[in-house]
Amino acid sequence: MRINLTQHYPIMDIQDNLIFANNGNLVVCYKADLPEIYSLSEKDFEDLHGSWFQALKSLPAGTVIHKQDIYRKPHYSA
């Protein structure tokens, strides 16, 4: 069975960092500025990983996490 998204648009409203879907779901959006890749020491990386692990494991069942990385290639002039 296919659903025509033009007839069943999933987003009803967006307020600040909240998205209200027409099926009753609530999406909380946030931005996390993470350190540059390979810029942390092993201990700092383990501390960061531990913090994220503790935060995410306490979320209720059925929670979906979506992480999107954006890579930009800066222009370098020697």
What tags apply to this protein structure?
78 residues; alpha+beta; three-stranded antiparallel β-sheet; 1 helix; 3 strands; 15% strand; extended
Structural overview:
With 78 residues, this protein is α+β, with helices and mostly antiparallel strands. It has a domain at 11-57. 21% of the residues lie in helices and 15% in strands. The chain is extended, with a radius of gyration of 18 Å. The model has no long low-confidence stretch (mean pLDDT 83).
What is the overall silhouette?
extended
Helix fraction by DSSP (H/I, runs of at least 4): 10-25%
Determine the number of helices (DSSP H or I, runs of at least 4 residues): 1
Distance between the termini: 57 Å
What about the largest sheet?
3 strands, antiparallel
Average the pLDDT over all residues and give the rounded result. 83
Total strand count, please?
3
- Note the beta-strand portion: 15-25%
Strand arrangement, largest sheet? 1-2-3
Which structural class should the secondary elements be placed in? alpha+beta
Low-confidence stretches: none
Backbone CA Rg: 18 Å
Note the run of SSEs as H and E: EEEH
